[in-house]
Specification:
The complex is a heterodimer. In chain A, α1 runs antiparallel to α8, α1 packs antiparallel against α10 and α2 packs parallel to α4. By secondary structure, chain A is mostly helical. Chain A has a domain of about 200 residues. Chain A is globular, with a radius of gyration of 19 Å. Helices cover about 75% and strands about 5% of the residues of chain A. Chain A starts with a helix and ends in a 13-residue tail after the last helix. By secondary structure, chain B is an all-alpha fold. Chain B has one domain. Chain B has 15 helices and 2 strands. In chain B, α7 runs antiparallel to α10 and α12 runs parallel beside α15. The chains are: A mainly alpha, B mainly alpha. At the A-B interface, α4, α9 and α11 of A face α6, α12 and α14 of B.
Chain lengths: ~290, ~350
């Protein structure tokens, strides 16, 4: 029984980071209809920023998190202006952007691999290897902190979307781009800002990932499928759905790992992705099967 | 009341089609692919005058990608369904033939068509499932497929898990050792190009191209879109599987990180996009260019990371500025040289 609770706790603790990685992806899809396969590779960029800041300057990843967020958000603006704005008029827009982001992921992976080699890295602040004990159940501090930070950032994002005027414009664009434009929303600016926020969240997630998982440039392929499974299960574009899916799947994966071995725990995400796409393409909270 | 003689109309139509076909033939230069084939078949004679193993390897490598890219083109080019997971069939073909070679000592060259059929049958089954969705969902599901197969192959003890299985090298002297595989790939490449020409100009191919233009209209025009799509998936898997079969014996290894790396499937996609999706000559030109690029980067810069970076960059630039590819763009501006008009 204690084992079962322990696994639940570990699954929950990982869910937070996954949720933060997925919510940026979900936001970008919701507003821009871009399935950003490069998202995990940009998470990796955030992780490397945190890694080098920690290694060279001893800066805590938590401190570097806002910096990574801003750097990546700026990168997002640049990418939007250079690549995605001009694609908006393309006939096969959604397929085109999938391929483009896929190519972008390779560019980022290749650049990171060239600069930092494919060695496994991890930042190790004190709390990353420490844990709280409640009875016999232990909670790894690193994962707990990263989960709390993730949920804080996601809540801030949710409040921003719900209560600010610009957030309303973003939500309106997500629901119906043409109608929002008719009502005077500057959809291009909304696209730019939400793209920047989405990529910025990838940077923030990267700073957390840097001490939760060990990473190397080519690892983002695995994360692509993991993040896609969260976003698809949650219903593409729904941030609440993504967060819930992140917790559900990381708990299920933790149990699968416990019963069948660690190799099979990642398989949970991939199989879930496959099954959801085919059985319920709109996911838990999607309203209509937009992608199908 | 005037009667209409249907035979007469059919006859007229046939005659008209004949004139169209003749007009199309005038824009082609059939001698060019024939000449290329002749040169490639005679190429190994160079071994009599010196050591050209590297050149032979390069041509063989290009030919293997011509097979795969032409196969991918049936689904991705004609039908418009972009799969980033076709290296799964490369692996299935490779493992099927490789295991048969390791256990039963049957040459993979003989087994290649069978391995292709196995991959095709699996493609048919997978297509039945994944072709229920389209657009980005299909692309994502194809990526998930690679991840699933990678984990399965890495943990399947029978085929050696992550370490894979070493295959016996053939006993020919070193200057001739590559030749069986060389000819196998050249023949397969020629067959793949010829077959994709025949497919494109059949009723089946017309249906596929209709699907890529507008699937709903094609369905209402009476095309069994589901069957057509799944068959296109199976055919493309067949070619990729066939290439995989011989590739394993050529490398003397079957291992997940040879077959199930993302670069293999990206190359197939990129070659078609660069050369021109949905054209016959496109995948061939793309394969030649990309293999040349890869060799250039690896030979001059020596790092596979730079290779990944460059491949991604070429793909981005290609998608942004030449979405129709070389053949497609030239054809649109009516500047396609006759020697490249294979459609």
């Amino acid at each position: 029984m204690a084992d079962m609770i322990q696994i639940l706790v570990l699954g929950l603790a990982l869910g937070g980071v996954y949720a933060l990685m997925g919510s940026g992806l979900s936001l970008v899809f919701g507003v821009m209809r871009i399935v950003n396969l490069a998202h995990p590779s940009l998470v990796m960029v955030g992780a490397y920023i945190a890694y080098w800041a920690f290694r060279l300057g001893g800066v805590d990843p938590m401190v570097i998190l806002p910096v990574a967020l801003v750097i990546l958000a700026a990168t997002g603006v640049l990418l939007y202006k250079l690549v995605f704005e001009r694609e908006a008029r393309s006939a096969k827009y959604s397929e085109m952007t999938v391929l483009l982001t896929f190519a972008l992921a390779m560019v980022v992976e290749g650049a990171l691999g060239t600069a930092f080699t494919n060695t496994q890295r991890v930042t190790s602040p004190d709390y990353a290897t420490d844990a709280f004990f409640i009875g016999s159940v232990f909670i790894p501090k690193g994962q707990l902190y990263s989960g709390i930070v993730s949920l804080t950032i996601i809540s801030a994002l949710a409040l921003f979307l719900k209560y600010s005027a610009f957030g309303n414009a973003i939500r309106a664009t997500t629901q119906n781009r043409d109608a929002a434009e008719l009502l005077g929303v500057n959809v291009n600016l909304v696209g730019l800002v939400s793209f920047a926020i989405g990529i910025g969240l990838a940077g923030a997630a990267g700073a957390l990932v840097s001490f939760v998982f060990s990473f190397f440039p080519a690892k983002h392929w695995e994360w692509i499928a993991i993040l896609m499974s969260l976003v698809v299960l949650g219903g593409m574009g729904s941030i609440l759905g993504t967060v819930l899916a992140a917790f559900i799947l990381s708990i299920v994966a933790a149990y699968v790992g416990f019963f069948f071995g660690a190799t099979w725990s990642t398989l949970t995400f991939f199989v879930a992705l496959f099954v959801v796409l085919l059985v319920r393409p709109q996911g838990l909270f999607g309203e209509k099967p937009e992608l199908a | 009341m005037p009667t209409i003689d249907t035979d007469d109309i059919l006859e007229q139509r046939r005659a008209y089609n004949e004139t169209l076909a003749q007009a199309a033939d005038k824009t082609r230069a059939m001698w060019f692919p024939m000449a290329v084939m002749a040169v490639l078949l005679a190429l190994p004679a160079l071994q009599f005058v010196g050591n050209y193993n590297y050149l032979i390897h390069l041509v063989l490598f290009t030919a293997s990608y011509v097979v795969m890219a032409s196969g991918w083109n049936v689904l991705g080019g004609f039908t418009g369904y972009i799969s980033l997971g076709h290296n799964v069939f490369f692996a299935v073909g490779g493992y099927f033939a490789g295991m048969a070679f390791a256990r039963l000592e049957i040459s993979t060259i003989i087994l290649a068509p069978v391995a292709g059929l196995v991959a095709g049958a699996l493609g048919y089954l997978i297509g039945l499932i994944t072709l229920r969705v389209r657009g980005p969902s299909f692309i994502i599901s194809s990526l998930a497929l690679v991840m699933i197969f990678r984990i399965l192959f890495e943990n399947w003890e029978f085929v050696g898990g992550a370490a894979g299985v070493a295959l016996k090298a053939n006993s020919l002297p070193v200057e001739w050792a590559k030749l069986p595989y060389y000819y196998a790939f050249i023949v397969m490449a020629a067959f793949a190009v010829w077959a994709s020409y025949r497919i494109k100009h059949s009723k089946f191919g017309l249906g596929l191209r209709a699907i890529s233009k507008d699937e709903i209209k094609s369905e209402s025009a009476g095309i069994d879109t589901r069957f057509y799509k799944v068959m296109a998936f199976a055919i493309s898997a067949f070619f990729v599987g066939m290439a995989g079969a011989v590739w394993g014996e050529y490398l003397t290894y079957i291992r997940p990180n040879i077959f199930l790396i993302i670069l293999v499937s990206v190359n197939m996609v990129l070659m078609c996009i660069l050369g021109g999706k949905g054209t016959i000559a496109g995948p061939v030109i793309g394969a030649v260019l990309i293999v040349a690029f890869n060799e250039f980067f690896v030979a001059t810069l020596g790092a596979s990371e730079i290779n990944i970076l460059a491949t991604g960059l070429i793909m981005m630039l290609c998608l942004m500025f030449f979405p129709l590819g070389i053949v497609g763009t030239l054809a649109r501006h009516r500047k396609l040289p006759r020697i490249l008009n294979w459609d």
